[in-house]
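Session log. Operator J.P. requested a structure for one protein chain; no other inputs attached. Running the standard single-chain path with token output.
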Amino acid sequence: MNFKITNTNAAQKIGHLNKLVLVLFFAAACSPKSKLNDVNGDVQVKIPVSSQSGDSSKYQLSVVTLKSLSNLKEVTGQFAQFFFAPGLENQTQLVGDSPQARFVRTKDNTYIPADSLSQQMATLYYHIQNLSEFSKTIGAGDINKQPMKIGLETKVGGSQTLEKNNAFYDGQSDAMLFVPFSSSELPIAVNSGIIAHEYFHSLFYKIVLKSINVAKSDVSTQKIQPLYNETYLRGINEGLADFWGWAYTNDEDFIHWSLSAYSGNRKLVLENSMIGQFENSENIFSKVQVALLSGSSPSEYLSEYIYKIGTPNARYLKQLTMMMVSGDVTSAQAKVQVAGSVLLFLNSLVDKTKALATTEILPAESLFDFMSSENSKIKLNKSQCEFTLSYIQKNELRATDSCVKQTDGTFQIKPEIKEPIQ
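Structure written below.
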């Protein structure tokens, strides 16, 4: 994901957090420092985490456990391995020195990061650990290799967008990369929603992009169908990653912590007037046509537009998840069900993309269509089906589809079947 930041005066958002860090550090400073190389296993640290309440004022310092550490000095272990200002060897291998963390041990054997780099390392390890366990819960535990490679203070040349205040997953090196952060807002490497967002990109890359091997050369030929399909895939990738960020944090506006200038258009709130609204195939097709006339880099021209494709999909998934919560289904269980269905959708997307003829495009309503089918493994009730139907019927060819009750009492969207004329 390409994050871009504009200058904002948002220091007040983390001012209280910084004060707490200083107070805790000085309170613990008199405690003896341990040999961090010898600290391993499950280790308690105090880091800034979201309370997962959806209320941004609840972001606070908490004691958490880093599991299966082999070395606290480098904060390395089963789930993460860090590289400082890394480079690439043979275009695929991340190389660089291991950053050295600094912690102070309190009397209750809790470790407090002594600088911002150490805080970022501990926070990232904690969230990657949780996201790995969530992946295992939904059946994707074998997608990412452990430990996840993470580059800090990564130098990216030739791109103003990527050179600062940014984070992205790089498929070639299979690494999550964080560039220098200079904004007054919450550092991206501490933002749990953005970390989850980037983690999802690693899943999408391995399940979808690596499988279909999207050829950039096809786009350079100025053919509209390959560029349309690339644009839709980029959009759905960003939208599903935002859903992952919400599912992990329960914060519908997790982006505003670090990228407040972009939170408005990406906030996962679905007003009644927005239900059923999304960028349909005709809209995407028209935008792609304009991009092809814009200059030599149509993909770059569409870099902002892809979020307009993705966000309605993310809002739909979030709303569907909330609608599934009932007396028998908790929020956590609903998230697991929908996230598991998203993985099934990704596999179906691979099959659908591979089966396309060179002149065919991926339908913009593909996600909604899949979630309403039995392949999603989700049992929709009437209200959930009708909610999904409001998106499906935007396609003129599907305008007469309806929610049909099944023998088990659930509902599926089916084409209208007209009785033959006698």
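Operator note: The chain has two domains: 1-190, 196-422.
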